[in-house]
Amino acid sequence: MVEQGTSEIKERIRKQLSGIGNIPAVPQVIAEVSNMLDNEMTSASDLCRVISRDQALAAKILAVANSPLYGLPRRVSTIEFAVVIIGFDHIKNILLALSLLDTFKVRNAKDWNHQEYWRHSILTATGAKRIADDLRYPKSGEVFTVGLLHDLGLVILYKYMNYDYKQIMELVDNQGLSFLEAENKVLGYTHSHIAEFLLEKWNFPRNIIDAVVNHHTPSESEFSPVLSSLVHLTDYMTQKFEIGTFMCDDNMPLDENILEILQFGNMEYLEQFMESYKPLFNQHFESLNR
Fold first, then answer.
1. Is the pLDDT of residue 130 over 50?
2. Which residue spans within the chain are E strands per DSSP?
3. Residues 6+ apart with CB under 8 A from 175
4. What are the residues whose beta carbons fall under 8 Å from the beta carbon of 44, sequence distance 6 or more?
5. Which of 151, 200, 202, 236 has the fewest CB atoms within 10 Å, measured from its CB?
6. Was domain 3-23+107-288 assigned CATH 1.10.3210.10?
């Protein structure tokens, strides 16, 4: 997309979202967590106290830590142990992403299943991190963050632009368009651009934003093609395996340029690679449903 088009899209999104008064300039929890993590005096025990005050958040962190995909050698039963065994830096990534996702939680409706959205987000995050670790990608914590936030724009679209969301779903249901095609027809942009606008507003790092924006088209990533490709691959695998899918990813194509970006060589090898993760995806999904 040319720069002028990008600017026009951002201006259109800004105008649409600026009329919605209850989207926070910076979610309070993000501001609190960011200030805390910027303080060099913050200790692991300080972080534990903050996490433990929010039982829902604590439960989600433990669910992450105990995921078969996360790969920890033993069961984690306390936040204190989670901080120790996962590590302070990775806990920071998990806390930030989970807090943001929880800020925009919505109730289930006939056209939105928030449990499915959550399970898809966490499966993509933990799966992408596991693959990143196995491929020796050094910043697997960033991969987790992008995986968790890759569909942030969807929940914003549903919660704050519901009229547009319903029009999009009508095109998907009645005309057989993919969700991305319907978004472009109704809005002129996609949920990825909505996420980009907000993550920029909240001062997320450029490489994280770029990877979220390009999670459907990693070969178009300017700053983080490997990061985008890892999340794209895992997102695609949820659909391929029909494990932890979310309705908006139906008929999602694989960007085959990831063969070169991730150095897989050929499609046959990639198919074998993906298939080797299917049991772990199943185990993870079962653990989330207990």
1. yes
2. none
3. 182
4. 80, 83, 84, 88, 91
5. 200
6. yes
Sorted by where each begins, the domain ranges of the chain are 3-23+107-288
Host H or E run for residue 254: none
Number of helices and strands in the chain (H, E): 17, 0
Other CB atoms within 10 Å distance of the CB of residue 15 = 9
Cα angle value 22/186/168 (rounded, 5°): 80
For 246, which DSSP code?
-
Question: Is residue 254 within 8 Å of 236, Cβ to Cβ?
Answer: yes
Contact 212, 150 (CB under 8 A): yes
Give 140-191 pLDDT, tens digit per residue: 889 999 999 999 999 999 988 999 999 999 999 999 899 999 999 999 999 9
- Give the other-Cβ count within 10 Å of 33's Cβ: 20
Q: Which two tokens stand for residue 31?
A: 């501001």
Cβ atoms of 34 and 96 closer than 8 Å? yes
Query: Are 98 and 61 in contact, with CB atoms under 8 Å apart?
Result: yes
* Phi, psi values for residue 135, rounded to 5°: -90, 5
pTM of the entire structure? 0.87
| DSSP, res 112 | B
Sign of CA dihedral 253, 151, 140, 73: negative
Q: Name 163's Cβ contacts closer than 8 Å, sequence gap at least 6.
A: none
Instruction: Please answer whether residues 273 and 104 qualify as being in contact, where contact means their C-beta atoms are separated by less than 8 angstroms.
Output: no
H-run or E-run covering 271: helix 267-275
The 3-state DSSP class for residue 109 equals strand
pLDDT digits (tens, 9 = 90+) for 89-123: 777 777 778 877 888 888 888 889 988 998 899 99
The CA R_g of the chain, rounded to the nearest whole Å, is 18
Type of residue numbered 42: T
Determine the length of the chain.
290
